Amino acid sequence: MTDALVRTVDPRFRPAGRTYPQIWSSLLARGGIGKTAFTTSMTVTLALRGYQITVWDLDQQCNASSGLGWGPQEIGSRPTILDFILGDASYEEVRVQARYKLAQGVDHEGNEFVEWMDIPNLYLMPATEFLTNADTLLTQTEHAHRYSWFKDFLRDEYDGDDDMFFIDNPANYGKLVGTVAMMMDEHDEVIPTCLASSKAVEGIPSLIKELSRLREQFSKSKAIPGRPTVKRIPLIGVQTGSRAEADNRKSVLEMEELYPELVKDWPYIRYSATAKTSFRDHLPLPIQAPNSPAVEDYRKLATAWGFPDLE
Fold this sequence. Notes:
- With 311 residues, this protein is an alpha/beta fold.
- It is built from 14 helices and 9 strands.
- The strands form 2 sheets. A 6-stranded mixed beta sheet has the order 3-4-2-5-1-6. A 3-stranded parallel beta sheet has the order 7-8-9.
- Helix 1 crosses helix 14.
- It starts with 21 loop residues before the first strand and ends in a 7-residue tail after the last helix.
- The model has no long low-confidence stretch (mean pLDDT 92).
């Protein structure tokens, strides 16, 4: 990227003296349980506090990319994360500044326009719908050498000054997901974002089993850490008061009973109807509704997790 870092990186984000950032991976093999909502909301919250972050969107649905201003329509013919994975484009060519749509309309001459506003400190490796074929591509002979794409990048190529990498994963435990997870150790974190619903709660055991399998697979490897670890689970969409749905209330109680050490000390993210329109309008929740209860909770969660405001 550069001959020298342009900013000083806190040593906490280079654990064990390594040269690449701390990795946080939003992962759970369930769709619609808040992985992307958490990724975009938390990364924007942290970026606005002064932390430099790159979001890696590995999901063919491209929701994180759309929410950060670079959906398929905006990307057009630009290279995407798949081009980077296959070695057809560099990190610098793919990585873009996260942004949001400030205004759009028609000017006095009848021309359509869109005005964008950059989100400071936040960057994106944008997704593509063709990621749906990534697992197959990585097994083909011509791309077999790219199976270690993430390891090779971290160990041999990265020289940037990010504090953190946030990975937004698809709802599976396929090969592509594994190529990132195998480079995580106990200093990194797998975040199984848990929407307060039975579907999300039921997905936690399979994730823990999969991470255990990965750790066993790489337990004797000296080149690959292979120690992805869950340290905390953020509960989002938690309903309060008498109108709370039975499934929502039951799911919160189950998580508190089953995983008290992972959820008990963290602020819960309250339900927000605005979050749905946030995805529809491709606006990150902290940008669209900065004073909403959910965004207030994200800020509390950031503080509780050790991310004070640097600005």
